[in-house]
Amino acid sequence: QVQLVESGGGLVQAGGSMRLSCVASGTISQGINWYRQAPGKEREFVASISRTGDTNYKESVKGRWTISRDDAKNTVYLQMDSLKPEDTAAYYCNTAIGVLKASWGQGIQVTVSS
């Protein structure tokens, strides 16, 4: 199974932007999902992109965030604009199989200050 590594997190002020990257160890031949987990809360779905480029978003990020993929770079991006303090969480990318197997990477922390 392809290994995924998240990067691009950090600290940003509310209203700012940040782009997360999910780099695969090989060709991404399946859909990729972004999830997040805030302290004391369960992990939740944020966005997905299919192998053919179809996208889906959590309602609260629609219109603010964009998921995209660059298959030449084996990378999926999550462009996050108009960030809010409630977007603060650890962010993870995963395949559907990885989610089913509960196999997660280290994730990347995103902190939005008010």
What structural class should be given to the helix and strand makeup?
Answer: mainly beta
List the uncertain runs.
none
The global form is globular
Main sheet strand line-up? 2-10-9-4-5-6
Strand content: over 45%
Radius of gyration: 13 Å
Main sheet? 6 strands, mixed
Number of strands: 10
Q: How many H/I helices? A: 1
Report the end-to-end length measured between terminal Cα atoms. Answer: 39 Å
- Percentage of residues assigned to helices: under 10%
Tell me, rounded to a whole number, the average pLDDT. Answer: 95
H/E element sequence: EEEEEEEEEHE
Q: How would you describe this structure to a colleague?
A:
By secondary structure, the chain is mainly β. 4% of the residues lie in helices and 47% in strands. The protein is built from one helix and ten strands, in the order βββββββββαβ. The chain has one helix at 96-100; strands at 4-7, 10-13, 18-24, 32-37, 44-49, 55-57, 65-70, 75-80, 89-94, 108-113. It has a six-stranded mixed sheet. Strands 1-3-8-7 form a four-stranded antiparallel sheet, with no helix packed on it. It is globular. The relative contact order is 0.32.
